[in-house]
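Methods — Computational structure assignment.
A single polypeptide chain was analysed. Its primary sequence is given first, followed by the predicted tertiary structure written as structure tokens.
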Amino acid sequence: MNDITAIILTKNEELNIRRCIESIIGLADRIVVVDSGSTDKTMNIARELGAEIYQHEPFEHYAKQFNWALDHVDVKTKWIYRIDADEVVTPELKEEIIQACKEHHDDDVNGLVMKFKVYFMGKFLTHGGIYPFYNLTIFKTGLGRYEDRAMGEHVVLSKGRTVDLQNDCLHYDFKDLTTWINKHNWYATREVNDYLETLAQRQAKTSLYHEAEKTKKLRDGLYYKLPKFWRAKFYYWYRYYIKLGFLDGQTGKVHAFLQAYWYRFLIDAKIMEHEIKEKDQK
């Protein structure tokens, strides 16, 4: 018994879910899948591998869905591991998690921050500010909860401190580029909603772990202070040239271009659309 419950949020993840669950067998004592309306084989695969299935709709955004899971799946273990269906725990990381959870079972370390390596269009990205990216994914039951925001959400601890794990979690997604684009269109809408909430100062003030706090300050204190559309260009130059994204070859260029000139540009276009609607209503 490692005293860990893993919670996975899903919708149509049949291409990813088997690899994810198999990687945490022997790590998590209990694996819970909270599904929001899958129409593929996701739930059949999860059941076959021994996961418990819960269903909750509608899916508003990630933070609300995960907080619903915290409130309804009756976690009894010391630790909760929030893992995405497209993530894979390596054997080295599995052993490190087990040891860290045992070592910090009774002290004030209440969260474990993991680093991720992203697989995109056939290769792992190791430049461009993409690797490593950090996320607080494991925390003690009752002491962590997602901040209520539509995008850029992070786990907030009610007390205690975090430590960083050293081994990588592999972030795979074996769906195609069309799915990536559709998902990021949805992300863009959520990002705009989050931006407007922040602008209206309706976001609760939170204290986050190191990388999340840095990202929040750069996003709200710098990036969104820059002119619309120009900031997407700046983002591309920063990722591709300053952070050496070009060293990842053609794949790095595609990723940087789509993140900046498609996703970030789309966010600004949706902000502009909102501003036009607001003006027309006056």
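Note: The chain has a mean pLDDT of 91.
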